[in-house]
Design goal:
Layout (H helix, E strand, L loop, with lengths): L2 H11 L2 H47 L1 H10 L3 H29 L4 H40 L1 H8 L3 H48 L1
Length: about 210
């Protein structure tokens, strides 16, 4: 049990005089822990940005076939918009988390710290939601783009019966759902753990305010 947990335990069972003293000691610890959590979230967001850049850059440099397909895709305005939007949103997310980290680092009272924690949780929530929507949208776009621009696939689809076409669409819908669920589980694991810790700090701050 660390110093913060011991102090919270004593604070919960002590008299009013000690409780006031404990509250003044508890706040800096909660501030430090909250700042550390948001800093970690910021580093994760930067790592995610670097990861997606590498995922798109390495195959482009290493494979002529991939490069040719990639260049062909960039003739589509929809693909260009989705790519630019995706990176722009990640950059905005990185900036907002950095801003949250800086705000929490200089916070000097519990009420303001609580507000900053709420704002950080909102940023994470909307970012995860955006990525889930983008994942589903990207799968749908990839399906329509490939079916129209891949000659071999387009030729096969042209000879499909109605039932075969429905089966293909059904399989793709299931694959899209599975893809989105995997991404959701990833974010649930990475961000969920940190947000739970941040939420515990928020609840302790509410007790101080009361």
């Amino acid at each position: 049990m660390d110093e913060l947990e011991l102090l919270k335990k004593d604070w919960g069972k002590s008299d009013d005089k000690f409780e006031k003293k404990s509250a003044s000691q508890l706040y800096p610890m909660l501030l430090k822990k909250s700042s550390s959590i948001v800093k970690t979230l910021f580093y994760i967001s930067v790592a995610e940005l670097v990861f997606w850049i590498l995922i798109n850059t390495i195959p482009f440099v290493m494979s002529d076939t991939y490069r040719a397909k990639h260049e062909a895709m960039y003739t589509s305005n929809t693909f260009i918009v989705l790519s630019v939007l995706s990176y722009a949103i990640i950059l905005v997310f990185v900036y907002l988390l950095y801003k949250s980290y800086k705000s929490i680092s200089v916070t000097d009272n519990a009420r303001r710290l609580m507000k900053n924690i709420i704002n950080t949780r909102k940023v994470i929530k909307y970012y995860v939601l955006y990525n889930l929507v983008m994942a589903a949208g990207s799968m749908v776009f990839a399906f329509f783009y490939t079916s129209k621009n891949d000659p071999k696939l387009a030729a096969k689809i042209d000879h499909f019966t109605s039932s075969q076409y429905m089966i293909m669409v059904g399989v793709y819908i299931i694959a899209t759902i599975m893809f989105v669920v995997i991404i959701w589980l990833f974010y649930r694991l990475i961000y969920g753990i940190l947000l739970k810790r941040l939420n515990r700090n928020y609840n302790e701050l509410k007790k101080i305010e009361v």
